[in-house]
Amino acid sequence: MPDRTTLVTALQGAGWHPAAWRTAGPAAQRLTSLRHWRDVVVEQDRLGVDAVTIEDSFTAGPVDATGELDTGSVVGRLDALLVANAVAPATRAIGLVPTVSVTHTEPFHVATGLQTLDHVSQGRAGWRVQVSPTPREAALFGRRPGGDEAAVLFDEAREVAEVVSRLWDSWDDDAIIRDVTTGRFIDRDRIHNAEFEGSFVSVHGASIVPRSPQGRPPVFSLAHRADAAAFAVDAADVVLVTPGYGGLEARDTLALVRDAEQAAGSDVRRPALADLAVLIGSSSAAAADALAALDAAAGAPYASASDTSVLATTVPELVTRIGDLRDLGFAGVRLRPLRIPLDSTAIARELVPALVTAGLRADVASRPTADLRTRLGIAPAVSRYASVSGSAPVEVSA
Length: 398
Prior knowledge:
Number of helices: 12
Structural class: alpha/beta
Radius of gyration: 21 Å
Oligomer: single chain
Strand content: 5-15%
């Protein structure tokens, strides 16, 4: 676990509250523009947030009780992986972690898209892995009926994550030799086929993208229940834990992950981030009133639909909560701002310096600017094929 508290902001449209677009002002007009995403991410980067996750789904938005798109919420989204690639050149240090589903997506495309992001961002890519369980999503592809049981989806996701990892490893760091004398651009012995034959996917061959700066971008996975925690232990580097889901408190939800690690025989304690939905106000009363107004506009309390705790809070209260979570063993937090840009701005401009003052983070000027794995306290990725080609273990460049 890194000594400093990890801080990640989860970005979704105008915010995580379905009525947030009504308070977003001009930003609500730009949700499908690069300007919106660049402005939000650049601010998080400039003021010291470690990473942003970018939500995505095969659905255009939430559905109502009839199964139709909910016209009271934001409908329509941009592809998260493409957004991350687009904003990368405008940022310097922040990790960029798009959500990419594995249920209907070919592992080859997942692997190469994320490798490309790692190259474009110079080692700041991550991947939030997600399954897509609904028949509505399956119907977009027409390959299967959808509605698979969770166990099936997670088994498939394990195979996809394994194949993606193999494709990421398929090029050695030094496979490109550019030997003008012999006329060889690559050493073919340093490119390895990712041979995999599973129940769901079958892949034979190497990636088309040379090994990226991190080797393997860190994988994030939501661990909000026991089966999800078991998958995260098998496939992820960072787990996102949701206090409040199923009535469990932070200590109990973290125990799901640690129990899964023990059951898997893993000696690695993965960094766990508490995943919290936040609305930040100038006072507790002001925050509560703002949340109540959003709930009234949406026609229902957001807390009843959220899979994590919903905090209408102030910056000092949030600092105290984060300190308590660190004491429980969390590496940090992923905060879901209910309103963007209001709450995402408060996270960057107010929460970051408050955490520094509280001794929970170093000053922005002294933050590490190395790759995302290093910032998260995750060991460098050593290729499974390193001993095959006789190459040295992979070194992570700063």
